[in-house]
């Protein structure tokens, strides 16, 4: 039985709160529970997968926006409307893969000049 000790985070874009709330995906059961079982991602919600050089969208039922950052938290690539059942390129300098609803990259004007971090928030503040 898995105990839910999940922490909630808010995305910070260039030192400004974004009102996008994320959860970490730590392993495959997490991916199944958080990404695969749902039919869409809400515009203000997202996920982060850390310490990978690539990710896949196998079994997702929807397209997503993906933002790849390096260990200094700078965006190294953005993938808009990334289709399900695909694998990203291999990013040897990747630290975080942020997964957002479609059009999030465009709406927040996320590009390679941006710095993206996340900070732990009180669960009561989380609008999930």
Give your account of this protein's structure.
This protein is mainly β and 128 residues long. The chain has one domain (8-121): Protein of unknown function DUF192 (Jelly Rolls, Sandwich). The chain has 2 helices and 7 strands; from the N terminus they run ββαββββαβ. Strands 5-4-6-3-2-1-7 form a 7-stranded mixed β-sheet. A hairpin with a 2-residue loop joins strand 1 and strand 2 (16-24). The mean pLDDT is 89.
Query: Which CATH first-tier class would you pick?
Result: Mainly Beta
CATH architecture classification: Sandwich
Class of secondary structure makeup: mainly beta
The major beta sheet can be summarized as: 7 strands, mixed
CATH topology: Jelly Rolls
Count up the helices. Answer: 2
Global geometry: globular
Strand content: 35-45%
Helical residue percent band: 10-25%
Q: Poorly predicted ranges (pLDDT <50, ≥5 residues)?
A: none
How many domains in all?
Answer: 1
Give the CA-CA distance, first to last residue: 23 Å
- CATH H-level superfamily title: Protein of unknown function DUF192
Order of helices and strands: EEHEEEEHE
Biggest sheet: strand arrangement:
5-4-6-3-2-1-7
The total of beta strands comes to 7
Mean pLDDT: 89
The radius of gyration is 14 Å
Give a brief description:
This protein has 128 residues and is mainly beta. The protein has two helices and seven strands, in the order ββαββββαβ.
Write the layout of secondary structure elements.
Layout: E1 8-13, E2 16-24, H1 28-36, E3 45-50, E4 64-70, E5 75-82, E6 94-101, H2 104-107, E7 116-121
Parallel strand pairs: 2-3
Antiparallel strand pairs: 1-2, 1-7, 3-6, 4-5, 4-6
